[in-house]
Structure prediction request, 587 residues.
Amino acid sequence: MKYNITLKSYEGPLDLLYDLISKNKIDIYEISIAEITDQYINYIKEMEKMDLELTSEFIMMASRLVQMKSRYLLFKKSEEDQVDPRKELIETLIVYKQFKNASEFLKSRQNEGDKLFFRKKEELFEEEKIDLQNLNIQMLSSIFPTFIKKEIKKESSFPKVYKFQTISLEEQIDYVRFKVNKEGKLSFKELIKKETKEEIIVTFLSILELIKANEITVNQDTLFSDILIKKVE
Amino acid sequence: MNIRNIIESILFAFADPISPKDIKNILNDDITISDIRKEIEFLMKEYKKNNRGIQIIRLDDKYQMCTNKEYESYIKKILQPKKKKTLTQAALETLAIIAYKQPITKVEIEDIRGVKSDKAINTLIENNLIKEAGRLDKIGKPILYKTTDEFLKVFGLQSLKDLPELESFKEEEKEAY
Amino acid sequence: MNIRNIIESILFAFADPISPKDIKNILNDDITISDIRKEIEFLMKEYKKNNRGIQIIRLDDKYQMCTNKEYESYIKKILQPKKKKTLTQAALETLAIIAYKQPITKVEIEDIRGVKSDKAINTLIENNLIKEAGRLDKIGKPILYKTTDEFLKVFGLQSLKDLPELESFKEEEKEAY
Prediction:
């Protein structure tokens, strides 16, 4: 009998045998041991050539088949106390086939649950006055269970489009204070990075706040000229 | 106050499958477990009857609140689509064996499949589809495996009884699905 | 199919406050925003009238589904609050995720952690370890979070580049399924 199977990988010897039988449209109970053994052995030779993974299970099955084939030659159906040498294999295959079909059933339903959406559990805890003293970076990097690490390694799943927040006055005051403390004195222009109207206004307001707080003094030579900012010592 | 409404709020807040027994512990009341079950079944039916946006599903002896699956297409638009899980043939075969023969050991699974199944078992555990169900009292104390609530949820089953008879898979009906 | 029921399932699944405008975008229907508002108000009243376990509350022009306040004592029993003097595991986990994945939204954090993380995020904001970093341009305009300078200070880092590499793990995912 000619057979022609594309060289695909099988889950194991039973998977391969089962496939050979169904490709040949043979009733499992009527397996021709000689034929199926030849086909099986031819197949695993092909696997070897193609460098497909040939596990010990495939090889063991091959020797089991060869043994069965020789025992079958001596087997006489007429003698009642003789057990058909194929019996054990046939039974194994029938059980395997049942579960293989059952797995097809599961496969057909494996996205069934995706149609339902569940809420996430609420998390309730109360934190009293928190002491931030004992924190260290190892606590952060070691906290991940493996699954979280996997998540983090993956790229974020949707493209990020940012709408930048407006610069807050508080942030800008901090920034101006930081610059003045560092430089001692500097000009207004040096504080402006993006030159948006918003940035200029917020920066100007920050300066007013800092003057009020007596942290800086300012000087302007002429109208519309750059403002010089100095730290109050 | 009404027990049914309290149960509804517990189902909503708990967000995981919860058993009538656990609900009884919370209520701390004279109500029996079977009455709690009745109240939940009443709610289930009521939601279903009116085709509400919310439904209660049963997972073995537990219950969980979720969206009505009819509205999946809308919900998908707001929530990130679930990661599609596609189990390999090896994992599906192993899962089918465990589903029907649980509790079962690795060796028994391997006898049926004819191949080593460690990797498939690990995959199933990682995906919370199976879990350990104790150990067999024989040499080596092999681990027994059984399916989880998550298994029922993923495959849209109320209980293991919803699985088709194993016998039915004897027929040559691969095309049936 | 009925718009009111679809809205109910959206409110349930979204779990955070959502505006009628966002709901309209999901429905993609001829329905007006004011009709959506009416449907929600109808649901609100119905829940309230029957003193159901679930209620819908209004926050500004947004709506959110939550448990009925009356049953809070029961809910507290299932979701036992933990008292802690240092950052809880929950807050640390959340902080770690933000540190490594910033900027990131609450929903993304929750997807990774598998639980609602509002409380943890609030704690981190209160302690000035994280702050808002703009908003994402999608439904609900979710806030993006990033770590603060204070975060660097508390953990003794000069910059985010000093965060330790996450311990490498085997990339077995391809075979996993």
Notes: Chain C touches chain A through 63 residues (CB under 8 Å). The radius of gyration of chain C is 20 Å. Residues 133 and 144 of chain C are 5 Å apart (CA to CA).
